[in-house]
From TrEMBL:
Included stretch of the parent chain: 36 to 401 of 841
Domain named Phosphofructokinase: residues: 4-309
Molecular-function annotations in GO: 6-phosphofructokinase activity; AMP binding; ATP binding; fructose-6-phosphate binding; identical protein binding; metal ion binding; monosaccharide binding
Family: Belongs to the phosphofructokinase type A (PFKA) family. ATP-dependent PFK group I subfamily. Eukaryotic two domain clade "E" sub-subfamily.
Name listed for the protein in its UniProt record: 6-phosphofructokinase
Species name: Bugula neritina (Brown bryozoan)
A GO CC term assigned to this protein in UniProt: 6-phosphofructokinase complex
Keywords: Allosteric enzyme, ATP-binding, Cytoplasm, Glycolysis, Kinase, Magnesium, Metal-binding, Nucleotide-binding, Transferase
Compartments where found: Cytoplasm
GO biological process, one term: canonical glycolysis
Amino acid sequence: GQTIGVFTSGGDSQGMNAAVRAVVRMGLYLGCKVYTIKEGYQGMVDGGDHIVESTWSGVSGTIEKGGTIIGSARCKAFREREGRLKAAGNLVRCGINNLVCIGGDGSLTGANLFKQEWKGLLSELYEAGEISETEMQQTMYLNIAGIVGSIDNDFCGTDMTIGTDTALHRIIEAVDAIGTTASSHQRCFVMEVMGRHCGYLALVAAMASEADFVFIPENPVASGWQEQLCGKLKQERDIGQRLNIIIVAEGAIDSHGQPITANDVKKLVTERLGYDTRVTVLGHVQRGGNPSAFDRLLASRMGAEAVMALVDASGDTPAVVIALDGNQIKRRSLMGCVKRTLYVQEAMKNKEFEKCIEARGRSFAK
Ligand code: ADP
């Protein structure tokens, strides 16, 4: 059996533990050795007791936990070749040449770079006497399977990322809770949700919670939006609605590229309509709490598939990312997905929204 290392990296999201658990258990089931690497790339660079062999019972009671138990970190050292050399040495000494990277596009980009450099890193370690010839031969190729953990659903190539569904639950629970009190007092609530570069959470939460208005980065509101918004709120009140809910994504802007904040909206509604208006900023609540059933299952399916992809790899197989396509779990080119994601980020930066939406939605050839 192979030797697999699994780690979580970058921003945390609910369901990461379920993915780690599935990797460990599927790996053991298929006769592999599985190590968990604590604190992402930092643990890989530091080595020692950050790299721990895992057991079947070692991951029990983790599927329902939010965040990531094995820790996540941003790691400066791994951005330098020097750091990656140390990381490679620590992996090779444990016999690890298969990695499951659970993180965002940054973490997956790092993993791909690591794979490209692997051969050179091993030669250097061997020449410096850091690893033996046998160790080098046993870990000749580095195989990578990526799983995307992100509440923003901002990665191209997969329909859903792990954590998004749970974050949506947190948002709509908050809207429902606020709705009852807002209704009692005939208030207007402006809710700021996460999404600096991707309006998915705001848009879907607005649809699921019957919000009156939503602001997202991909759809800058044209001039005159103030009249449109106030007209809509008034119309709802006139037909007997006792509350208003407005959802604003962090990165919302108008057609001049000016940010629209929850406080801007509150000011407008208070001044023009005189409604009692309150702002709620959800913040890290969206990242918190137990993963939903959907995220637990998605993470479990992705974790299992990641291990199967690694077991199937022979020779120098290109890195894959595990994706959800409709209701199927698929393997896709990690580099293809990362490239598409960076293209979308660039389009967002340049305010080329149609380009961005088209690229996000386009179906993906394997
Ligand atoms: P995310 O994975 O959530 O997008 P980051 O972009 O912060 O989060 O990436 C997490 C970690 O991955 C970084 O701290 C760094 O150690 C590693 N990383 C990211 N990009 C690269 C890169 N281009 N080269 C090497 N390592 C990288």
